[in-house]
Fold this protein.
Amino acid sequence: MTDKFWGIMGICRRAGKLFIGHDDVKAALRGKKASLVIFSSDASERLKEEITNLSGNIRCIQTDCGRDEALFRIGKGAAVFAVGDEGLANSALAAAQD
């Protein structure tokens, strides 16, 4: 993932629009607060299946970075994240494709 993508993730975190970890992401999906789900490269297949099943029509992507890089980049390491703002989610998707 690019520096731009991680910059957007940092903005999401500071704005309180980033859900971090299994429990937070599940709660965001159930509360219909998530606009994008992001898996780290070392997320387990079981976790990906569980979250993907809950996500419905919400887009899910996988980064090429593990939990350790997420920890380094945004200060929190987890196998799954969710963005809770449509505009930031679209920006993150665009940056992920660069």
Q: What stands out?
A: The beta strands are 18-20, 36-39, 59-62, 80-83.
